[in-house]
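Let us practice reading a record.
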Amino acid sequence: MEKSFEESARQRRNYIAQARAAFGSQEQSPNNSETASAEPAESTSTLGIRLVIALLLFICFVYCDQEHITFQGIGVQEIVKQVTWNPLPTEKLEELFGDISITGGPKSSNPQ
């Protein structure tokens, strides 16, 4: 007893509709395009908030630099030093591993 393609497709659609209804995401169903287009999509962007926070932090940084303000003994120069600090000193790594050459390919066991 073999099901027809249309019957199995209908059963799959019914199963998907039941699953969406169980999880409460029936509004996102492609069959409900009328309800999806009638309601505006509510996507919020935090770019403006992040931009304002970054601007306020920069203004505070410049103000602390002009007025020579420190916080718990940390001044602006310490902050600049930490920002420009290189956690992976590539120069020292090149010194240590500079003479090591890595060749690609298999080694030949035939000395000629």
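A brief commentary: The chain has a mean pLDDT of 77.
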